[in-house]
């Protein structure tokens, strides 16, 4: 492990979220041009993609905090092999869309690895040493080696950011919860094409005493991290 080692207690709902920095990772889920920018997969489904942009700046600040402390970051990208052999017909044809995954759009082939739309937006680009995980489904554990990566590095607590709240973020958080990981979703670092779904997904997540996990904000988490580092941080090599 490298970086600052502290215990952090972040204000959260339904009650504070505690973690040891030696066992935490930040997940940035599917911040891809295909979902966030005009001309991508999200817009091809009829969505107003501008609703997701508010999540970018708070996520950038959380990312900066994790990087400054040397804590792990995992980026995910939803998409498919160029030959589409990992694309179920059920996913390709759902909703009888005019453009399908793999078809050409303004940013290249929709939701297809290697196309410009599949890239992570420049504001949140991964840097050297960060995991970039390609996934064919909504949940980041399905058909990937995410669980192996997390267990191999001793991660037990996840801070989740990304898009969209009720689709890939929620699916990933539920998969993580069933595998015994403690999950905190940052409400301002996630976004949905449907504001009411964003709210409902987070309400469901934290209800019943945190039945799936915790919800907080970027400011609350960053403030708690900075306070912990200030009072009792130790430098590790
Ligand atoms: N359509 C939608 O809201 N989301 C997705 O298709 N994928 C993700 O959430 N990444």
Structure overview:
The strands form four sheets. The chain has a six-stranded parallel sheet with strand order 8-5-4-9-10-11, with helices on both faces. The protein has helices spanning 33-36, 41-44, 56-69, 89-93, 146-152, 165-178, 195-210, 218-232; strands spanning 3-5, 7-10, 17-20, 24-29, 73-78, 104-105, 108-109, 131-135, 157-163, 182-191, 214-216, 234-236. The protein is 33% helix and 23% strand. A hairpin with a 2-residue loop joins strand 6 (104-105) and strand 7. The termini are close together. Helix 3 runs parallel beside helix 8 (218-232). With 237 residues, it is of the alpha/beta class. The radius of gyration is 17 Å and the shape is globular. Bound molecules: tricarbonodiimidic diamide (TIU).
Bound molecules: tricarbonodiimidic diamide
For the biggest sheet, the summary is:
6 strands, parallel
- Uncertain runs: none
By helix and strand content, what is the structural category? Answer: alpha/beta
Strand order of the largest sheet: 8-5-4-9-10-11
Mean pLDDT, to the nearest integer, reads: 96
Helix content: 25-40%
Radius of gyration: 17 Å
Distance between the termini: 7 Å
> What is the element string, with H for helices and E for strands?
EEEEHHHEHEEEHEHEHEHE
How many helices?
Answer: 8
């Amino acid at each position: 492990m490298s970086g600052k080692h502290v215990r952090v207690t972040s204000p959260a709902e339904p009650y504070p979220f505690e973690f040891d920095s030696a066992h935490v990772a930040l997940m940035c889920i599917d911040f891809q041009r295909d979902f966030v920018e005009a001309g991508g997969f999200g817009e091809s489904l009829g969505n107003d993609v501008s609703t997701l942009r508010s999540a970018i700046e708070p996520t950038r600040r959380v990312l900066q905090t994790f990087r400054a402390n040397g804590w792990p970051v995992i980026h995910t990208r939803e998409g498919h092999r160029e030959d589409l052999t990992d694309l179920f017909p059920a996913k390709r044809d759902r909703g009888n869309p005019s453009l399908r995954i793999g078809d050409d759009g303004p940013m290249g082939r929709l939701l297809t690895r290697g196309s410009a739309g599949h890239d992570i937006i420049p504001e949140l680009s991964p840097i050297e040493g960060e995991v970039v995980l390609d996934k064919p489904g909504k949940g980041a554990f399905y058909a990937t080696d995410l669980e192996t990566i997390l267990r191999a590095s001793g991660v037990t607590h996840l801070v989740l950011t990304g898009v969209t709240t009720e689709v890939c973020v929620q699916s990933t958080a539920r998969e993580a919860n069933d595998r015994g990981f403690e999950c905190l979703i940052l409400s301002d670092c996630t976004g949905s094409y449907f504001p009411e779904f964003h709210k409902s997904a987070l309400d469901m997540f934290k209800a019943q005493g945190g039945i799936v996990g915790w919800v907080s904000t970027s400011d609350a988490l960053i403030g708690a991290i900075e306070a912990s580092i200030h009072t009792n941080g130790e430098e590790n090599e």
